[in-house]
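# step 3/5: fold
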Amino acid sequence: MEIFNKKEPKLKKEQENIEALQKYRESFLSFAKDNDISIPISLDGNIELKSINDDFGSLILKTQKIYLTKNKEKIEKHPPFEKHPYIAENTIKKNKKTLLLGTFPPPSYLHNQYPTLSNGSKNLKGINIDTAPLLNYFYGNKGSLWDKINIELDIEMIKSYLNRNCIQISDIILFTQRKSWIKGRANDDNFCNTIPNFPLLENLLNTENSIENLIFTSKGWKLKGRKPKQKMEAIKTISFHDNINSAVSIFLRSIHSLRLKIEFQKPGGNEKIEFIPVNYQKIEEFYDLFAFYIFINDRRLLLCLGNSPSGNAMKTIDTITFKKWIHFKFGDKGIQILNENPPNSKNEKPKRKRKGPIQKALGYNEQRDIIDDFFYELYSNLIKRNYEWIFEVNSRKFD
């Protein structure tokens, strides 16, 4: 199966991007071959799904360990492949109702894997990958998901919380490279040559389980190929955009790559919209929803798309989900206040100054933070499967 490559690129920029990602991949695979390690990925990016197993992961880690002993310049130019550090198994456990999925942790977890290469602060082999996470677990950094919903950074307390709410946690990426360990190292768009968590998807779809909804902590997805003002009858193919590396986008692309029947349905609606070219425009209407049903080979799942809990706070203010929440909490007045305080700069300081007038106009005091309130309400209701709240906020419309 071809996971990495795009076929027949039409644009010069797209071709250049493909060639760059091939160089990243080939640097690591050629290094493995030179060290008598045979990783079952061809240099052109082909891999059999059945090869993605524990032995495959061991080969990646074996190569990575040797690779990281090499010179700093090589590692900076082409970071190694990484295996997800916290996914121990991909069996869907009994009585779980929700599957919580992110993308992949920041490279700072490598401090825990390679303490001899770490200087104890931010550097691994002299490369700044930030300090080791406070918790060697999903969302283990301060200010991440657990902080947003007021859960102490303690593995046993987190697992207890997840068990009480019938939640299984994992990530959609099993293996990946990064374009850089220096710039944007934790950003989704920094991932390249990604191998999705196909074993988890196989267990989700091919075995009996009680999962009824998926929560993604990295959102944003689009269809690929439609040109502005293009007539719908001219569209002959349909696919998910492959340059968006959010958790839900990777999930949708992975499902589509397995050639499964996919249908969309709006909450409260009866129409099931099949994923075929003639329905391109109808599927685009789902972009503004943070909760909708998807049918995969007739298996119904509710997809809930949460804002990234570790993202820039001011980006949150500009998302449609935040605006829907504002409308739910404050009505038309809230939307008017947001419209009166539009984005005015790409620089961080002016952005942060913008939040003050918004909070003041909405009656917030200095001890409260509107972004914290949003994240707490959003994820608390998603995790507790409060469908009444989810569907009410999701249905909000405003000018």
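# step 4/5: annotate
The CA atoms of residues 327 and 334 lie 6 Å apart.
# step 5/5: archive (pending)
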